[in-house]
Specification:
The chain is built from six helices and four strands. By secondary structure, it is mainly alpha-helical. Strands 1-2 form a two-stranded antiparallel sheet. Strands 3-4 form a two-stranded antiparallel ribbon. The chain starts with a strand and ends with a helix.
Length: about 190
């Protein structure tokens, strides 16, 4: 099994691409953003709200870890994900534009939105929150570049079964977003 090499440059590049794509999606007509392919599927706004819920569970953990980590002068470097973390990351990452496994979302990650409540103002506030949270992710990746990221781990949002060093956590979060980008593309057809 090949190792998973992680670099902050690659993560920032991918995140910038995601943010640019989401800005274009936000401009779509409300009717497209709240249309779901079927009654069991989410619409685009629900996907964005889910990503907001998911990332919110990491904000404080990332901030605490960044504050604890000692500064280093080695700058950005490659980080090799450990085997279990690589497995978890790869489980989220789409391959060739396809989500590998469809999985049921845990209740605490589900967006609780009603289409009746979704007007342009409410939708824009959900997108604004997405951009705010993911700017935090970008700034955190940048801050981690001059930290010794091997000095502390954070627990994943699903519990202590998975503990990440920051580069692994960032990679997991990006893979999770990329997975849902594929889902949004499927929804929008």
């Amino acid at each position: 099994m090949a190792s998973l090499q992680i670099t902050s440059e690659n993560q920032i590049q991918r995140l910038n691409g995601i943010l640019n794509h989401i800005k274009k999606v936000q401009e779509l007509d409300v009717s497209r953003l709240i249309a779901a392919p079927n009654s069991k599927s989410w619409n685009v706004v629900e996907v964005i709200a889910h990503l907001n819920i998911s990332y919110t569970l990491y904000v404080e953990k990332i901030d605490i870890a960044l504050d604890k980590l000692p500064t280093t002068d080695s700058g950005s470097k490659e980080f090799k994900a450990r085997p279990w973390q690589k497995f978890v990351i790869e489980g989220q990452r789409p391959k060739d534009g396809v989500r590998k496994w469809k999985m049921k979302t845990l209740k605490r990650f589900e967006p609780l939105l009603s289409n009746e409540d979704l007007n342009r103002e409410k939708i824009d506030s959900i997108f604004t929150e997405f951009f705010k949270l993911h700017d935090h992710l970008k700034q955190s990746i940048l801050k981690s570049r001059n930290k010794d990221v091997t000095k502390t781990k954070i627990t994943s949002a699903i519990g202590p079964l998975v503990r990440f060093y920051l580069p692994e956590a960032f990679e997991f979060l990006l893979s999770h977003i990329e997975r849902h980008m594929v889902q949004m593309d499927e929804i929008l057809g």
